[in-house]
Every structure is written in C-alpha cells, then in structure tokens.
Amino acid sequence: MTLRTFGISIQRVFQECDLELQQQRVLLYIIVFIGLGVVMLITMFFQSFLFSCSGERLTERLRSKAFNVMLRQDMKYFDDPENNTGALCTRLSTEAAAVQGVGVRIGTILENLSNLGVGIILSFVYGWTLALVVLGFVPCIIVAGFLQIYLMSRFASKDKETCENASKLAIEVIQNIRTVKQLTKENDFVNDYCCLLDVPYKSSMRRAHLFAFLFSFTNSIMFFVLAAVFSFGGYLVDQNRMTFEDVLLVYNCLVFGAEAVGQAMSIIPGYGKAISAAENLIGLFDSKVTIYDNDDDPSKTKSISDFHGELQLDNVSFAYPNRSDSLVLDNFSLTAKPGASGCGKSTIIQLILRFYDPHHGHLRVDQHDIRSLNLKWFRSQVGFVGQEPILFNMTIAENIAYGDTSRKISKSEIEQAATDANIHEFISNELPEKYDTKVGSKGHYSLSGGQKQRIAIARTLIRNPKILLLDEATSALDAKNEKDVQEALDRAQKHRTSITIAHRLSTIQDADFICFVHNGRVTESGTHSQLLGKRGLYYNLAKRS
C-alpha cells in the first residue's frame, strides 16, 4: 500500500509543469512520507511483536493440551499402531510448531489481499472500464491459490505418516543401541531409515512440477494483466474515453497489487502445512475416551470410605481392541478376599487397573462395580509391580515419593518403605549420595535389575495400597536378586489382597489360592497341595518344572 501511494504521489507531483508548485508538493509529500514512516515503524513493531508472542503462547498451549489429552486416553488408543511412540513424539514436537506460523501467515495473506483489493477499487475510481478487464483475471488467481492450499494440506497428511514411521524407527534404534551395535546392524538401520525418508522425497518430486506451475502461474499472471491494461488502455486513450494520466494511475495500482499477490502466494505452501497440522491436533482433541473420571459431574462416581480390597470377577469376557476376534478371557470368574493372595493372568491385572473394561460380565470391588468408582481414587488404592521396573530420571528419594503424590512424603517414610523393600541398607552403605543418587534412564548411577525392582517395590509401598498386583516381578532376575526381591514381596503382601502373575511354581506355591488359567478360563483352583492332589494340568506343570 505504501508503494502504491508513492507511485500515485510521484505521478501527481511531476505531472505539474510549474517548478515552484512542484517544489511545494515535494516538500508536502516528504513530510507526509516521514509521518507515514513513523506510523509504520510503530505499527509494524507491534504487529511483529504481538504475532510472535501470540504464536509462542499458542504453541505452548497446544503442546500442553496435546500432551494432556494423550495422557488421558485409554489404553486402546496406545494399542493402535498409528499411535506409536514415534508418531506421538512427532505430533508434540512438529505439529504445534507448524500451527504457530498460521497467525503470521494469515496476517500477511490478508494484508496482501487487502492491498490487491484496494488497488482494484482505486482502479475502478480512475478507470472502471479498464478495471473490468483486470477483474476477469482475479478468479484465476484465487483458484490457483486455493488449489495450492488444498494440495499442500492433502499431501502433508501423507508425508506426516511416513515421517512418523521414520521417527519410530529412530527412537527404537537409539533405545536399543547396545543390541544394534552388538549385532553390527548400524548400516542396515541407516538404510531402512533412508528408505523411509525416500517415500516423502519421491512424493515431493512427483508433485514438484505441479506446485512449480501453480507458483509460476500466480506470480506471472499479473504481468499478463498489465499487458492487457496497456493494450486496452491505449485503445481507451485513443478513443478519448480515458486520459493517459488515469491509465498510469491504474497501472501503478495494479503493479503493486501484483507484488502483493506474489508475496501472498509464496507463503501459501507453509499455510497448507499449518492447516494439516491443525486438523490433526483438532482430531486428537476431539478423540473419544471411554474410560475416564467424570470431572464435570463427580456425583456419578464414588469413593469407598471403608475400603477393604475385595476383588470379584464375575463371568468376565475380554478381547484386546486390536485383536477383537480373539478372546483372552472367556467367562472368567475369580474372587480375592482381603489378606489373601492368588495367581491369575496379566490381562486380569489390566482389567483390575481399569486400563480396559470387560466386554461381558462384571468386575466388582467390595461389592461395587468398578465402573461406578472414581478412577483416580481407585487406582490410588492399587499397587503394581511389573517385570520391568520403571524408574524416572530423578533421585531415589523422588522415585519412591512418586508412589503417592497426594501428600508430602517425609524422609522417614521413604526410608521405612525402602527398609520394607530390602533396599535401605544398599542405599545407605553403597551409594555415596544415598537417597539423593540420581537414577533412571539418564541417571548418574547404574543399578542392577534387582535393585531397581526393590526401589519400585518401595514406591508401591509408600502409598500403602489395599490391593497389590504382581506381574512376573521376579522372572527376569538371577537367583540372588530373586531371593531379595521375593522377601520384599512377601513382606509387602501381608494384610493386603494380592494377585500374582507367575510361571515359576516356586513363586506362587505359598499363595492362599491359586487359579490355573488355560485358554482364558479357570480350569483348576485351590492351594498348591490341593492342585497337586487333583493330578490335572497344574500337576503336569509341576512335574515338568
């Protein structure tokens, strides 16, 4: 708009033959342009500053909300192969940043299109007949621009999937770098990674000619418009229907309008990617969660004031969402009383933790259907120790205290939990920084599997759970570590409802009640001696072991 004003001003000043009048007008326009420069300095500063601030805030809010929505999804969302680790990390890192620039791009596009619009309006003022010729070309420019946006957003979705697969491969290789190096598979994985990157590259090459044509068309069409202006304008001047001055004014308006169109079209590809990223984020935000706490109406869920921890599975049938045609549990029934321990199956633990809901049957806790309970409250009453202990990148004390985030955990409680887990002596005597030793994936101190497992047990004990779930907690340990961990688990199971998943009979033979699960059904149940006396499947397993 500034350049258009400058062009009109030059024409107004120097068409005047009177030298003194020219000097007066030059002085006037100098003052006007200085004033416009000051106004432009202030307005453009605030435009850039505010767009940058709003863009950064938008990115922060989108990433925070996306991460929050991801963590609130139920487990079937993460079972979907499309929602693998690489895909989710890519969405968090790139899509929010892609959306950030949409505000600046929209502002630039609107600014340039408004310049074009003002130019066309001024063209009508100075010569409506000539301006009508220009309007015939405008639909072509608009169609080309929207075609670029459509194609870019469409192809961006396909490229995103390939890039997510490449990210997944990279994360998997880096996480297992020791195995990769031991197998000398570095070159193979590099080739696999390059093959994944070749897919979007070749796709881009195939469509490059189309984008090149659209880009060149939108940038060159205005020059064809100018050619039409000069040819038709000359005809109008020859017919005394316009003055040469008005033709030049129309020309000035259209020249700078052409530059505005070129600038707007040059940023359309980035705008298309931003639209695609925004659609993906909106799809994530709108995803339906089937297992959640109703925060809008807390009265629909409840907590049990005098909670004992009795578990009852009544004719439960279940299949994982990604294998819906294969029943893992088929009319499965089990009752676990407070203070008792029993053996079950890994899927049962996932149902008890309410990662999934059964397709048929009921799961009751203290005679209450688990669906009616407040989800956060119920999970806070359950302790879980799995086969692979997960420690966060923080100190041992912080890892143990993470077991109960509802209150501030004292140092004495942390040490007592560590003592009950058979790890306090090691921490106090072997580690120079004791409970302040940083562990986890990037920790300063490397712990053995048994040591990590006992810290995980201490973290479970700190919340004093009513129900304790143990899923192959000692299967990956050597004999010495297994003994230490098993002692800690035996101590932890006292006065709690405990369900143990195990394939070693030595782990579960002292349980109060054992269920032998075969093909999703309880085929035998009882104590160790009772099951041996039945001489059935459990007896055959005991003979083989």
From TrEMBL:
SMART domains: AAA (SM00382). Coiled coil: none annotated. It is a multi-pass membrane protein. One of its GO terms (cellular component) is apical plasma membrane. Keywords: ATP-binding, Glycoprotein, Membrane, Nucleotide-binding, Repeat, Translocase, Transmembrane, Transmembrane helix, Transport. One of its GO terms (molecular function) is ATP binding. InterPro entries: AAA+_ATPase (IPR003593), ABC1_TM_dom (IPR011527), ABC1_TM_sf (IPR036640), ABC_transporter-like_ATP-bd (IPR003439), ABC_transporter-like_CS (IPR017871), P-loop_NTPase (IPR027417), Type_1_exporter (IPR039421). The chain crosses the membrane at residues 26-50, 125-151, 210-237. Residues 1-273 form the ABC transmembrane type-1 domain. Residues 311-544 form the ABC transporter domain. PROSITE patterns: ABC_TM1F, ABC_TRANSPORTER_1, ABC_TRANSPORTER_2. It is found in: Membrane. Belongs to the ABC transporter superfamily. ABCB family. Multidrug resistance exporter (TC 3.A.1.201) subfamily. PANTHER family: ATP-BINDING CASSETTE SUB-FAMILY B, BILE SALT EXPORT PUMP. This is Uncharacterized protein. It comes from Didymodactylos carnosus.
